[in-house]
């Protein structure tokens, strides 16, 4: 039976697909556009199917013959408001187990607009009647891809809060936790928070990318107002304000949690490793 991976053309889903295929599993990958360059990069053994969370009925063919699925709670930056319908269709089609990749910040109130959307998906997953496992990772190492163009073109990173310290996590470790929860018993009803194995200062992350590509990179620290301007065409305003608010608490993402090692049996990959794995993206 194939395992259905949604978000398969994305950062975590792509890694999950490759790890499942490498371990000999049949994978069905969901995308809104099977003709996209990202879909073309999926391993050739993978069955690629079209579907759009915004129109849950389009997922029915993807669920056929599937018992296990990975759900990325994502509809652009908008809420995955259709999660209850998606999960209901999945259950009725025979899906039994779901890993849910999303976001949860327990320090924020229920009525916070970003949190209320995520919590609605979380509740839909828990009410779905499926065996569920939540994955609420820390900050992705892959977020530093945002710096790729300015590193390639100018050897510079412009970002606020050089002292921001985060136990950023490699996408392959999030995917490895999802894979364990999909393949093995004992993860139902669990919530995992994959983090990296060490806290990394933002300015040090820049240096580590420089080391991986053999080039010195200059870090230019932006003020919050400069960051608003810098990000205005990249992120919605609500997300920018959330980033800036987090920046006022430079250690809030620093704690290293044991979940990756406990679930996979291996320590998480370091940022230096991530930079080496993705060095070509910054050259
Ligand atoms: N970045 C972080 O630091 C961070 C931290 C904690 C949690 N998270 C969570 O991680 C998740 C994002 O994971 P990611 O970075 O691996 O994703 P990503 O690289 O941004 O890729 C998004 C994926 O979602 C799919 N997708 C988007 N809208 C869709 C729709 N309407 N219907 C079907 N598929 C759709 C896309 O597929 P197609 O384009 O091929 O259709 C793509 O494969 C989010 O839930 C986020 O809250 C992120």
UniProtKB/TrEMBL annotation:
- What top-level branch of life does the organism fall under? Bacteria
Question: What SUPFAM superfamilies does the record tag this protein with?
Answer: NAD(P)-binding Rossmann-fold domains
- Gene3D superfamilies per record: NAD(P)-binding Rossmann-like Domain, UDP-galactose 4-epimerase, domain 1
Where is each NmrA-like domain found?
3-246
Q: Where is this region: Disordered?
A: 100-122
Q: Which Pfam families match?
A: NmrA
Q: State the protein's name.
A: Nucleotide-diphosphate-sugar epimerase
UniProt source species: Planobispora siamensis
């Amino acid at each position: 039976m194939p395992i259905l991976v949604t978000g398969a053309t994305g950062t975590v889903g792509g890694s999950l697909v490759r790890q499942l295929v490498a371990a000999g599993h049949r994978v069905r990958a969901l995308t809104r556009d099977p003709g996209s360059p990202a879909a073309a990069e999926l391993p050739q053994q993978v069955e690629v199917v079209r579907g759009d969370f915004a129109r849950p009925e389009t997922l029915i063919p993807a669920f056929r013959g599937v018992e296990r699925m990975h759900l990325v709670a994502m509809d652009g930056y908008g809420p995955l408001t259709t999660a209850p319908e998606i999960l209901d269709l999945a259950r009725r089609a025979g899906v039994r187990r779901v890993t849910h990749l999303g976001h949860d910040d327990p320090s924020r109130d229920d009525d916070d607009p970003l949190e209320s959307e995520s919590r609605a998906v979380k509740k839909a997953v828990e009410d779905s009647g499926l065996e569920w496992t939540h994955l609420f990772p820390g900050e992705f190492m892959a977020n530093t891809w945002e710096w790729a163009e300015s590193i390639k073109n100018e050897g510079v990173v412009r970002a606020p809060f050089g002292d921001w310290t985060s136990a950023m996590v490699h996408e392959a470790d999030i995917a490895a936790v999802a894979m364990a929860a999909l393949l093995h018993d004992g993860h139902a009803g669990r919530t995992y928070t994959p983090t990296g194995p060490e806290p990394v200062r933002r300015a040090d992350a820049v240096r580590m990318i420089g080391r991986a590509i053999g080039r010195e990179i200059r870090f230019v620290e932006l003020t919050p107002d400069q960051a608003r301007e810098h990000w205005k065409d990249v992120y919605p305003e609500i997300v920018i304000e959330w980033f800036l608010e987090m920046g006022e608490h430079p250690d809030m993402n620093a704690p290293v949690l044991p979940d990756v090692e406990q679930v996979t049996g291996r320590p998480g990959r370091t940022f230096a490793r991530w930079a080496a794995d993705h060095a070509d993206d910054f050259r």
